[in-house]
Each structure stands twice: as structure tokens, then as C-alpha cells.
Amino acid sequence: MNTLPENSIDVLVVAAHPDDAELSCGGTIAQLTSNGKTVVIVDCTLGELSSRGTIEQRAIETQKANEILKVSGRVNLLMEDGNIELSKDNILSLIRSIRQYRPKIILCNPPHERHPDHENVHKLVRTAVFQSGLTMIKTEFNGKHQLPHRPDKLFSYMQTYDFEPSFYVDISDYFQVKMESIRAYSSQVFVAGEHNTQQPQTFISKPAFMEMIEARARYFGALIGVEYAEAFHSHEPIGFSSFAHWL
Q1: 10 φ, ψ (degrees, to nearest 5)
Q2: Mean pLDDT for each 10-residue chunk of the chain (247 residues)?
Q3: Contact criterion met (CB below 8 Å) for 118 and 159
Q4: How far is CA 1 from the centre of its chain?
């Protein structure tokens, strides 16, 4: 699941670590793929600094999550976990992915977050999205020149810290799929019967963390009159052509 032809996909999800996408917008991903939309996930690191599990375990878990969410592809840019820099090399690496997959929408980590990597990936994505549309920035993929591409929309998904959402996505029919994709990372989160008590306890390995994921999704759902929802922020105003959309 490393490459697709250079044609336009619907959504590119960029994440600092494997499991960020599932935890934050797994329901939205499941909704999209279940409705025939193409979604590719780009993880920036292998999560090699994780206190629990191994890189090898994480790779197996990621593949399992891919199958659950039915994504069209997933790549890892092999940046340094804990030290994601806004460097030329990292920017160009992400630009190559944007130009390869040519997404209409990008979802990424938010700008203000508990984990510095999440904040740094947000800065990286904002920069790469802009520069990917510049003709004077040259990149190649598989020995072929890439054409410029700038996605139509860039949205941040919500992680640990709250922000004022621009909109919510109803994931009621896909919430259980989201949770299944999260449980695929059994080395990282609490899964009954599979929890390794010999490894360090972390912020996301406690049973209460999974309860928080559900409680937050229920709360967001209640705000829009559905069972479960996920929250997103737009960095630009969102407009629509007519009230007929709701009539």
C-alpha cells in the first residue's frame, strides 16, 4: 500500500504518527471510503519514540487499520519522531506526496496540540500545500517530473486540545468502524484481553482514554442532533452557493 497512479484522489490525510488519523478522523475516513471516495493516509514518522510496542508491531497494526478503514493507500515519509522539522527536505517530501496523489482535500494535525510533533506537522502541511502549487518548485517521483498541485481545501482534525470547530461530520453509522480501527493499535491503546501491563502506562494506553474518545464523539454528535460526530477546523471561510442545500 505504498503507491497509486498520479491521478486525483478525494482526500489525503496527513498525520504525525501511525494511529493519529484513526484516533482523530477514523469515522470520517470510514464514511468516505464506504461511499466510494478515495482516501490515502500519509504518516510522517514510524512512531519510533513510542513508549509501548515496537516499530514492527506498529507496522502490523497499521496494516490492520488500513484494511478496516479500506483506504486506497498509505505511505510513511520516515521523518524523525520527536523532531519533525520545517526543513526543506521535509517540505519537499510532503510536496511529492501531494503532487503524486493530487487530493481535493487534505486533513491534518491541528496547530495547537499537546504533542509538539502534531503542531510541527501542521506547519509543515500548511507550507507544503502552498508550495506544492508553485511552478518554480520542481519535484520528481519515480524519475518523472511532477506537475504543481494545490488542494481545494485544508482542514484540521481535532486531537487532544479542543478548538472552535468550523463544522462537524456525522459518523454515527461508522463510529464502530472507527473504534475497531483504533483497537487495531493494541500495543498503544487499551484493548481488553490484549493489554500489556509490563510496558509503561501512557496517556492513550489507559482505559479512560478510549472512554474519552466515545464521550467526545457523543458530545459532538449531540451538538448536531446525531449519535456520533467528529470535529474539524477550516483555516479559511467556508461558503455555499445557496440555502437550497438545506431545503
Answers
A1: -85, -50
A2: 63 97 98 98 95 90 98 98 97 98 98 96 98 98 95 97 97 98 92 77 88 98 99 93 84
A3: yes
A4: 16
CATH number of 11-246: 3.40.50.10320
CB under 8 Å to 118, separation ≥6 — which residues? 16, 20, 109, 110, 159
Domain boundaries, the chain: 11-246
Task: Say how far apart CA 126 and CA 66 lie, in whole Å.
Answer: 25
**What's the CA gap between 16 and 82, in Å, rounded?**
9
- Phi and psi, residue 83, nearest 5°: -150, 50
Work out the end-to-end distance of the chain between its first and last CA atoms, rounded to an integer number of angstroms.
Answer: 41
pTM of the entire structure?
A: 0.93
The C-alpha cell at 31 is 464514511
- Which residue bears the cell 497509486? 4
Alpha helices in the chain (DSSP H): 20-34, 55-69, 88-101, 116-132, 175-183, 207-223
Which residue, chain included where needed, has cell 519522531? 81
**Grid cell digits, residue 108:** 491534518
Here the cell at position 36 is 466510494
Cell 440555502 -> residue: 243
Q: Say how many residues make up the chain.
A: 247
Cα(13)–Cα(157) distance, integer angstroms: 10
